Amino acid sequence: MSTRGVAILGSTGSIGCNTLRVIESLGSERFRIVALGAGRNVARLADQITQHQPELVSVDSEESAQKLKAELTTRNAWLPRIVIGEAGLVEVATHDRADYVVSGTVGAVGFVPTLRALETGKRVALANKETLVMAGELMTCAAEKSGAELLPVDSEHNALHQCLRGEKRSEVRRIILTASGGPFRTRDKASIQNATVAEAMRHPTWNMGAKITIDSATLMNKGLEVIEAHWLFGFGVEEISIVVHPESVIHSMIELIDGSVIAQMGVTDMRHAIQYALTYPERCTSELPPLDLAKLSSLRFEAPDEERFPCISLAYRALKTGGTLPAAMNAANEEAVQAFIDERISLPDIPRIIERVMNQHRTSAVKDLDTVLEADRSARVAAQAAIHELAQEFRVLGVA
Questions:
Q1: Position 400 confidence tier, pLDDT thresholds 50, 70, 90
Q2: For residues 147 and 117, is the Cβ–Cβ distance under 8 A?
Q3: Is residue 200 included in any domain, yes or no?
Q4: Given CB 3.0 to 4.6 Å as the disulfide criterion, which of 98, 140, 234, 273 pairs with 7?
Q5: pTM score, whole prediction
């Protein structure tokens, strides 16, 4: 068995750290870390470098690079080549000794590096759903042209990949994405209006980064996953459903044409999905505890409330329209989520901003990378204008 080289985009985040834990548990004879892409968490990156000794790392700025060099020198630790910014992430993603690339960055920052990894024929374990939302057509075409494998790490899409193994596409009626419902599942519309950042960050079942946790609170995360599922598995808008499942034990399901439903169940730990994507088509023993079915008191299901959580319908609209609209929607969401985290707007302002940007956006066909990047740029400008207007109202109302 040959050792596979692995590059990680977003190594200091939740996905990156869990990927390293998985690789450590599987053993160095299977995988070796050759490159790490991070942002500004220099201390954590220095720990990772000291342990795994990658050949290449990237950070967000020259300042972070100098801090990292100083930290590693102080420790008398391994000193890899250090690169900077998006160009640095691209170097990490296309490292010639990287057989697999784990794309774990948050938001649009991972878009270009992930595309370049696919163009060079890497196996990409994708945890960054925004890349497929922005330009699923470019991503899937790049993979088809180079022969790259695209395997999902998102728990829902990873579950679908497992459920679809061995099934004929013609015999699958629909795919069903499960959603926890987030921290406001049982809250009425009026109380959601006054939700705080701290309340939105209290996800009931998963421990995730700030952006994806807020997306889960608005259910935009599930909307993004609908678009991602379309590009990963080739199902149409009407063949992709969402069901709220508060326990998060069933990670997703498929329904066959005879009415049978196949579900993938497991503990709520991202290491399972990461290991599956790295070792596929093999299955390896995991250090995770098995799911204890005897301790499950109930498994509940309910339809999502699109009136309280309008981001779902916005995402379906973006997918139906296609072209550059999903990229514009994604950019507007990223800007609005950050404005909410900064306490400049309310939680319900997030879908308002997204809808305003979508209504203003002039959708065009996705011809190339520049088309997508321009849609992303213009949508952010429009979102910032909408945020500025709503932020003034937010202050006038005395909410902030």
A1: very low
A2: no
A3: no
A4: 98
A5: 0.92
